[in-house]
Amino acid sequence: MYSQGLIGSGEQTTETPEFLAAFQARIDADEKIEPNDPMPTAYRKTLIRQIGQHAHSEIVGMLPEGNWITRAPTLRRKAALLAKVQDEGGHGLYLYSAAETLGISRKQMTEELVSGKAKYSSIFNYPTQTWADIGAIGWLVDGAAIMNQVPLCRCSYGPYARAMIRVCKEESFHQRQGYEIMLKLAEGSPAQKEMAQDALNRWWWPSLMMFGPPDGESEHSDQSTRWKIKRFTNDELRQKFVAATVPQAQRLGLSLPDPALAWNEVEERYDYGEIDWDEFWAVVKGHGPLNKARVAARKKAWEEGAWVREAALAHAKKRAARQTAAIAAE
Amino acid sequence: MSEAEEIPLWEVFIRPRNGLAHRHCGSLHAADAEMALQAARDVYTRRGEGLSVWVIPSAQIVASDPQDRDALFDPADDKIYRHPSFYNIPDDVGHM
Question: Looking at the complex, does the CB of residue A105 fall below 8 Å from at least one CB of chain B?
């Protein structure tokens, strides 16, 4: 899955102009930056924030889909959904590991998530009301994620780029399983087709919002672009997504819920209607349908799992102590 | 576990198939070696990526400091006589 364009980072850096110029020269030469390399504070902080938000998005993204595992219509669908949700958990772990190489601890990141301080992709604050939502999420939400993540495979920070390569390899199954669900529903009874259309109607606009605020308002894009953390602007990626998705919707025989959507011959791109950015910011700021429930679910899992973590460590220590004692006795 | 204690970090290495070396693929947290191996299996080999897994406590890895890069690796740069192209062999000798 994916974390939307970075929210809330305006990091300042305090290094000398020489240091910054030398760093920029490495970036411009397409050198990868590795964990112990010297790097500007702002580069480090931006990445910690971005990779952290991305990791949190993977983990929180398990919740809306996990909601349907027990109610998947067939065993085939259930096995696939289970595997997909497990992948999202794995993606979260790759990304947490990548962030940890920058000097933040896993524990700190988890605490920021369960305290509600950390951001994650706002799309996961919407509910999954019907089975068709699982199709729409795989097709649209994972589709949007792939648009965003493919360029991240070339990100200047080595561990992030390597994590993204693994993630991207695994994501294409996610999108295909979602589209297949939509296809089956769209070819089914009128009620099933209607269910698919309803899911598309509800997920379309939040999916477009996943790319983050329009270019003019995205304050961090410029520096991130210079540092090759970001390779395309939010609007460029959104446009690519629309262009890829329109024919897929046509093939399904479903209509995208935007009367303004049309091919612009002159510009050779799609025009689309106004995105409701007030809704986007409200959801980012915690006022989406399920923000509180999502964070509460993570907090509950973290707190109720504390005894397991404690027991595992105590067991490891006890075994290590026994081993030491046995060696000493020899 | 005191609240401040982190579960140890492990580095994961996977051999994709026999004949290839184990290769670093990421890291994970686990309380002990056995759990680290199980977690590595779950996190890094969901699609037949490996036939063998190594897990190593991250704290046990001794690494060179990137700041020492020049001191460590520059001396190799001016020893071009370590490369085969340094030596002039006439073409008529054939491939060597």
Answer: yes
